[in-house]
Description:
Helices cover 22% and strands 19% of the residues. The protein has helices spanning 4-14, 98-111, and strands at residues 20-25, 41-48, 58-61, 75-77. The longest helix has 14 residues, at 98-111. The radius of gyration is 13 Å and the shape is elongated. It starts with a helix and ends with a helix.
Amino acid sequence: xxxxLDVLRTMLDEAxxxxxxxxxxxxxxxxxxxxxxxxxxxRNQIFYGGEDFKSCKxxxxxxxxxxxxxxGLIETAGPLGSEYYDRIRxxxxxxxxxxxxxxxxxxxxxxxx
Length: 113
């Protein structure tokens, strides 16, 4: 099963929308943390519209400990991912589907071109 952040990556790639990708797989010692809802990654994050959290327009993360990871959903932050910069968007549990995040990014991408 693909997690929602992997689905979002596919959608962004197909739409030719650039983003920064950060994936760190679990080490052999961490394999006990593997979970189909979040994939094989210790760190699973993308930044849209910048290179890091401080410069991006939207930070999306889906990994152990992120909001919504138990449902396999994406936690978002940043100006497009939050009502207030540097805070998580709470609607209602601080997470979103790939389709919801994609629509936010796509709208910004089209408006900025």
